[in-house]
Amino acid sequence: MRKSVEIKVIREEDVRPTAELIAALRQEFVEGADPWVGHKLAVALLRSGDPKAAIDVLVQVTDQLPNEWLPAWSLGSAYLADQRYPEAASAFRTALLTDDCPHIRLNLGIVLNNMGERREARQQWQHAARLVAAQIPWYMRWVPGGAYLSARWLLLRYRG
Question: What region does 5 belong to: left with phi over 0, alpha with psi -120 to 50, or beta?
Fold first, then answer.
């Protein structure tokens, strides 16, 4: 006899940071000034829908961690969420100085497209697709939500 398997769907609202978590991270960041705790705080703020507060924290974090790509990428994502496209482009370009990551290039392309710079946006998406194609086996490129499929879709969607 087979046992039934329960499948739980995780919704975005199920994983949003709680006010208590944000308060605890904020307290820990202020007391210890560990920039990685600040990064966790900023990501929690961004996920809770407060990009302006995330930006304030991430500016401090990127000053403390100038050679790390992740805080710069997160800052670019926060600027993107706040529709501050020139600042987002600058943050993503800063992140690219330390890591040529396809996800950074995807987001930079989205920002550039929103700024009307379609040709450069396409170049970023093409570069992202090439990076992923060189990094992963062919059979993994078509995973839904993956960088390669995202880059290919963006290239098809914005042909101009």
Answer: beta
What is the chain's pLDDT, residue by residue, as a tens digit (160 residues)? 444 444 444 444 445 678 888 888 888 888 667 899 999 999 999 999 999 999 999 999 999 999 999 999 999 999 999 999 999 999 999 999 998 888 899 999 999 999 999 999 999 988 988 887 776 655 455 555 556 566 665 666 666 5
Interacting residues of 146 by C-beta distance below 8 A, sequence separation 6+: 132, 140
Unique residue bearing structure tokens 């090439």? 130
pTM: 0.78
DSSP 141: T
Q: If you ran DSSP here, which 8-state letter would residue 136 be given?
A: S
